[in-house]
């Protein structure tokens, strides 16, 4: 693929945008969701990628967590905010990142770079 050039004023996810795709998942129930195509349909086509993750959490919030042993142990990177990885999080096909939603449904958006 050739180099992409961002165009001033281009809406995210459209031609000329610095984001190739925006994936939106609404009303995700409380639970732990590794970031893969099983939990977030469509993201597998873009892995590996760099993405900004935005979560609009329910009352108790959500956390972005990372594992260094393919999902056995998890460490919280960020929590209680609505946007994770503002500089971009490098996502891959291994079980490395997950979103942990504490209570109430949350909306999740992946801004794929």
Summary, kept brief:
The protein has 113 residues and is mainly β. It contains no helices and 8 strands.
Topology:
Elements: E1 21-28, E2 31-34, E3 49-56, E4 62-66, E5 75-79, E6 83-91, E7 97-101, E8 106-112
What does this structure look like?
With 113 residues, this protein is an all-beta fold. It has strands at residues 21-28, 31-34, 49-56, 62-66, 75-79, 83-91, 97-101, 106-112. It has a single domain, classed as Jelly Rolls. It has no helices and eight strands. Strand 4 (62-66) and strand 5 (75-79) form a beta hairpin. The chain is globular and about 40 Å long. The two termini are 13 Å apart.
Identify the notable features of this structure and list them briefly.
single chain; mainly beta; Jelly Rolls; globular; 8 strands
């Amino acid at each position: 693929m050739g180099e992409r050039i961002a165009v001033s004023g281009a809406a995210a996810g459209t031609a000329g945008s610095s984001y190739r795709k925006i994936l939106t998942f609404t009303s995700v129930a409380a639970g732990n969701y590794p970031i893969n195509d099983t939990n977030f349909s469509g993201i597998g086509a873009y892995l590996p990628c760099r993405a900004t993750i935005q979560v609009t959490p329910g009352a108790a919030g959500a956390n972005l967590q990372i594992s260094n042993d393919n999902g056995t142990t998890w460490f919280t990177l960020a929590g209680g905010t609505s946007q994770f990885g503002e500089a971009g999080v490098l996502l891959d096909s291994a079980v490395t990142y997950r979103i942990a939603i504490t209570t109430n449904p949350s909306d999740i958006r992946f801004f794929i770079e």
